[in-house]
Amino acid sequence: MRLGALLGTLLAFSSACLPSTFARSVTGDRVLVLVPAVEAALHEYSVFLDSLERRGFDVSVRAAANSSVVLHTDGDRLYDHVALLAPAAKRLGAALSVQDFIDFVDTGGNMLVAASAALSDFQRRLAVQFGVEFDKRGTAVIDHSHYLRTKAPSNHTIVAASRLSNIPAVLSPPLLADEHRAIYFEGIAHSYDSQIPLLAPLLTGSRSTYSGSPATAERPSSKSTQEQLSGRSLGLVSVFQSRSNARVVFAGSTALFSDALISAEHSANGPFVTDISQWAFQEKAVLREIAHRHHLASAASSSSSSEQPDHYRVANVISYEIDLSVYHDDKWHPYIADDVQFEATMLDPYLRLTLNHTQSADSDAVATYHGDIKLPDRYGTFTFSVNYKRTGLSSIDVQDTVAIWPLRHDEYPRFLSAAYPYYAGSFVMVAGFLALCAAWLWNTEPAPKSSKPKSS
Ligand SMILES: *[C@@H]1O[C@H](CO)[C@@H](O)[C@H](O)[C@H]1NC(C)=O
Ligand SMILES: *[C@@H]1O[C@H](CO)[C@@H](O)[C@H](O)[C@H]1NC(C)=O
Ligand SMILES: *[C@@H]1O[C@H](CO)[C@@H](O)[C@H](O)[C@H]1NC(C)=O
């Protein structure tokens, strides 16, 4: 009951810190939060956990050592989202393996992984699977210019990070616009594999940020080993979105989510934590294809319900349409962008065109993208696709296989301008033949002169 009272007093306080959005997740409400110890965590992360509950989640806070915690039973997910706030735990739940977590993400579960300087090998191995490599044991993120200023002497391990990647799908406009934001971060750095298109750094170090041992942090080490992470290559928070559109956030700091840093002076941790948890748990930037269709442009466009043809003739003009919606703030909205492209491919892309958008008349939550497309003058089996992948947004990959047939013999135009030399050639041939015949028929040999005397 003492806990209830505490949560009550924090409720008023937290609503001042965290923007109160009541977005619900698209994919489900069950959240598992794994922490070192339940009682302590309810105090330490009360603002964060409380904001999850107010957003409509069914939050289960469990000790990492609780051996009855499993992610799946009989192949079904028991939770829709997992937040790992127990970085030091060597084993999680019922001896869950790295593969269990990968299966969880493969089946559409989302994860929020928070690390700290005391990160276990298990969670390092988990992160490596997603292209995130946490720095060596015993290191921490240090910044001697940007740190949380407290009265007690500090060794500058609570850095004030501010270098956010411009990913509007994840970060809300006020946070991106705020020039003086300070996101307090105490924990471990990671390097992110920039070759992986599914992974994007969200918060990185500034020029004075580096990763090193806090024990030797009194003086900035004189540019020691080159393998040391620093600056922009030093990842603090990274976001990953799988091909199945499951989302994983890696944050090098559990303290990022703590009440202490959310309530620190000038802290932007509250809005930042809300943004990344809303993104991770599919409360925003969820893109969806409602329908798509194509038909001959000359066919009556009003009869849109008519079935799609499975073949066209070469160089037909077709009309292609796709309807897109995006989810945020508890509702589906029309998705408006200028970079949705249509492709027709047969091994190589033959066409790539940007579609125009119009507001759909049927529903105000749908934007319809439309294009009148002249098919290539080439027959074969083509794939019509809209493959739309943007950082932070769910990816869309719509494909139709359509045959393009050559024209039938009676479908060609009567005269082809390109063929005029041939027409001319055949007429010249006919004319020549007639001239030859005429010459042969009427060109009689001159009659021989009657030089012989008449015989009688
Ligand atoms: C362990 O987890 C189960 C559910 O997964 C829960 O019912 C139980 O209370 C937990 N035990 C402890 C000690 O927290
Ligand atoms: C320096 O940071 C480490 C790790 O965060 C901490 O354990 C230690 O107490 C700090 N030392 C001082 C002098 O603040
Ligand atoms: C989009 O609209 C412009 C201007 O109306 C037009 O020129 C273009 O062909 C359209 N794009 C497609 C793919 O239909």
UniProtKB/TrEMBL annotation:
Annotated PROSITE patterns: PROKAR_LIPOPROTEIN (PS51257)
Positions of region (Disordered): 210-229
UniProt GO cellular component terms: oligosaccharyltransferase complex
GO biological process: protein N-linked glycosylation via asparagine
Record's signal peptide: 1-23
OST48 N-terminal domain location: 30-280
Gene Ontology molecular function: transferase activity
Subcellular location: Endoplasmic reticulum membrane; Membrane
Membrane-spanning segments: 420-442
Residue ranges constituting the OST48 middle domain according to the UniProt record: 304-443
Keywords annotated in UniProt: Endoplasmic reticulum, Membrane, Signal, Transferase, Transmembrane, Transmembrane helix
InterPro entries linked to this entry: DDOST_48_kDa_subunit (IPR005013), OST48_MD (IPR055459), OST48_N (IPR055457)
Keyword Nuclease attributed: no
Electron transport found in the keyword field: no
Pathway connected to this protein: Protein modification; protein glycosylation
Lipid bilayer topology: Single-pass type I membrane protein
Function: Subunit of the oligosaccharyl transferase (OST) complex that catalyzes the initial transfer of a defined glycan (Glc(3)Man(9)GlcNAc(2) in eukaryotes) from the lipid carrier dolichol-pyrophosphate to an asparagine residue within an Asn-X-Ser/Thr consensus motif in nascent polypeptide chains, the first step in protein N-glycosylation. N-glycosylation occurs cotranslationally and the complex associates with the Sec61 complex at the channel-forming translocon complex that mediates protein translocation across the endoplasmic reticulum (ER).
Subunit structure: Component of the oligosaccharyltransferase (OST) complex.
Assigned protein family: Belongs to the DDOST 48 kDa subunit family.
UniProt name for this protein: Dolichyl-diphosphooligosaccharide--protein glycosyltransferase subunit WBP1
Encoding gene per record: WBP1
